[in-house]
Design a protein that fits this description.
The complex is a heterodimer.
Chain A (H helix, E strand, L loop, with lengths): L1 H18 L11 H28 L21 H7 L2 H33 L5 H9 L6 H11 L6 H8 L15 H27 L3 H9 L4 H12 L1 H14 L3 H8 L11 H11 L3 H32 L1
Chain B lengths: L1 H33 L21 H6 L12 H32 L5 H12 L3 H14 L6 H26 L2 H9 L4 H12 L1 H17 L2 H6 L8 H4 L11 H22 L2 H7 L6
The chains are: A mainly alpha, B mainly alpha.
């Protein structure tokens, strides 16, 4: 049995090597699999296996400091962590905060980047200076963005309070990061600031690559600036929009760094997000089972978000 | 008519410039702070332009200033970051380029499925990955080692590299490969001699992204490294915050150090960066 299948494999291999060069992309060969295998092995080891392990852990009462609980897996208790989460108000709060946070930052980042790219496409002087200024936030690691904005919004030494004081616009110092909703808004602001350069650059590249004749023709036909933007620019830069959003979705969990440094999810869970709450359960409380159950929710959220964008991206690749 | 257009144009220029200056302001403030004397930091009213430029903050970072005990092993954090980032960049770009080539040139069973699987692996949030990785790597003694962290970063950088390189290889005309096959090349030699040299600019771009992603990564590093043996720059930043006081100027100075590779790459690739990212967008 094994020998025949090995022979068949050999045959297929030979057939691939001999005939594939003539129809390089239509016949099956082993070559693409050999190229992909190392990447797949690394990803299987470092991502897929740990995630599967995490799924398993999420069904056990795993507690890092209580070894006797380590691998106690019982069918009647397997849903305990998920039930605990379902009844946990903080979990629901963190989920709500995460969804609001994602919806606001993605949409606002995109809209600002779109407006900025349209403005920059019309600039006639100082292109390279402006591009450098635009790329400044890209030099900052997310941790640095978090640190920097935490400092600006600090209640006692923060630049925002300091400046408002000096201008006489404020009498009492405001604890921006402690109060709500200003804490959440400050975190969103930092994240949006961090997201804008990459999005703008991609959308600007898209806008600059569009054929000028189309715009001239539309202008001659009497289309207004808004009409030209809506009916020519927007549909034509769609692939670039999708690339920009995909890059953004791949990086979206970087927001954890910003939140972790600015507020750490606190005070009193006011700015808690799924990522910070998972970290809190695992690191502070050593409740790895519960934290794993929680991280599964984060995985599902992330995977759905990316899957949706990729479907759009693949569709648009076929069309253009 | 012509006059009106001219006014409109300079209006655009001024507006764009003004917005971008405001946009870059937070960053400029941090950079200024790193070079200020200590008595200019956090004063009311704020001193906008530094009156005096000093390197004190950097000197105390590296322990050259005996008056202020630094206590933060910045040197070893930096060295760890450099090792982790270089190691993971070289390997992930190598592997990711191979995978990207396979995706761009071959149609095979499960093509889309494998591509999606690789991409989705990037969508797993760091926290969700960090917990099981910590447990598993503890068993193999990989926690708190440079190699362990580098291995994790390789896996994280592969998807984006494969995606970028897929786009780059699509730009290279297939006719070149067909000509190579007629001249007697097999798949390996066509890849190695024809397509790879043409994709070098793409690999350069992918390397920059991979390097910066590793250099800046915090979430996993904070879970998987604990001591100066393996702790990287972003994790080390927290050494400046104690329970009650934060050394803001020290942090600003460390920020500037941490930004150096990014600054170098931005200056080098200012124009090229866009091309790299948008390759493959128009051609399917």
């Amino acid at each position: 049995m094994t020998t025949t299948s090995a022979k068949q494999g050999e045959k297929a291999n030979q057939a691939g090597v001999v005939s594939a060069p003539r129809h390089s992309s239509s016949r099956t060969t082993w070559f693409p699999f050999i190229l992909i295998a190392p990447s797949l092995i690394v990803i299987a080891l470092v991502v897929i296996y740990p995630v599967l392990y995490s799924i398993y852990v999420s069904f056990t009462p795993f507690h890092l400091l209580r070894p006797e609980q380590t691998f106690v897996f019982t069918t009647e208790k397997m849903w305990n962590n998920y039930i605990k989460l379902w009844n946990d108000d903080v979990f629901w709060k963190s989920l709500r905060n995460t969804v609001i946070f994602l919806a606001v930052t993605v949409n606002v980042s995109y809209l600002v980047a779109l407006a900025l790219s349209q403005l920059l496409a019309r600039v006639s002087r100082g292109q390279s200076v402006m591009r450098t200024l635009l790329m400044v936030p890209m030099m900052f690691a997310p941790v640095l963005v978090g640190f920097q904005f935490a400092w600006f919004f600090n209640a006692t030494v923060g630049l925002v309070n300091n400046a408002l004081f000096s201008l006489g616009l404020m009498q009492e110092p405001k604890a921006w990061l402690v109060d709500q909703p200003t804490g959440m808004i400050a975190i969103m602001l930092a994240t949006i600031w961090m997201n804008i350069p990459m999005l703008t650059i991609i959308l600007l590249a898209g806008t600059l690559s569009l054929p000028q004749e189309t715009f001239e023709a539309a202008r001659v036909d009497g289309a207004s600036a808004w009409q030209r933007f809506k009916h020519i620019t927007m549909p034509l830069i769609k692939p670039f929009t999708l690339i920009a959003l995909t890059v953004l979705s791949l990086d979206i969990a970087r927001a954890y760094d910003v939140v972790r440094i600015m507020t750490g999810g606190g005070p009193a869970h006011r700015t808690e997000m799924i990522w910070t709450y998972t970290g809190r359960l695992a690191i502070r409380n050593s409740q790895f089972g519960l934290a794993s159950a929680m991280s599964m929710v984060a995985v599902v959220l992330g995977v759905f978000f990316t899957l949706y964008l990729f479907r759009q991206l693949i569709k648009s690749r076929v069309v253009y | 008519m012509f006059q009106r257009q001219k006014i409109e144009q300079s209006f655009y220029n001024i507006m764009a410039f003004g917005i971008l200056i405001l946009f870059a302001l937070p960053a400029i403030w941090v950079i200024f702070t790193a070079f200020r004397p200590a008595n200019e930091v956090n004063v009311t009213p704020p001193i906008w332009i530094p009156q005096k430029i000093t390197l004190d903050a950097f000197a105390s970072l590296f322990g050259f200033n005996p008056d202020i005990a630094a206590g933060v092993p910045v040197g070893s954090y930096m060295w760890n970051s450099i090792r982790v980032s270089l190691l993971s960049t070289i390997i992930s770009v190598g592997l990711g380029t191979m995978a990207g080539y396979a995706f761009s040139r071959f149609r095979f069973r499960g093509h889309t499925l494998v591509f999606l699987l690789i991409m989705l692996s990037r969508a797993v949030p760091g926290v969700a990955l960090g917990l099981p990785l910590f447990l598993l790597m503890r068993q193999y003694g990989l926690v708190d080692t440079v190699h362990g962290l580098a291995l994790v970063y390789i896996a994280i950088n592969i998807p984006f590299t494969a995606w970028l390189m897929d786009g780059f290889f699509r730009q290279i005309p297939k006719e070149l490969d067909e000509a190579a096959y007629i001249d007697g090349c097999n798949h390996w030699s066509a890849f190695w001699r024809i397509d790879l040299p043409l994709a070098l600019p793409g690999m350069a771009a992918a390397s920059i992204f991979a390097f910066l992603a590793s250099w800046n990564e915090y979430q996993l590093a904070s879970l998987l490294t604990k001591t100066p043996v393996a702790k990287t720059f972003p994790v080390g930043l927290f050494d400046f915050t104690s329970q009650f006081t934060v050394d803001w100027r020290g942090m600003a100075a460390m920020s500037v150090l941490m930004m150096l590779p990014a600054i170098a790459f931005v200056i080098l690739t200012q124009r090229r960066l866009t091309e790299g990212l948008t390759f493959g967008a128009i051609k399917g």
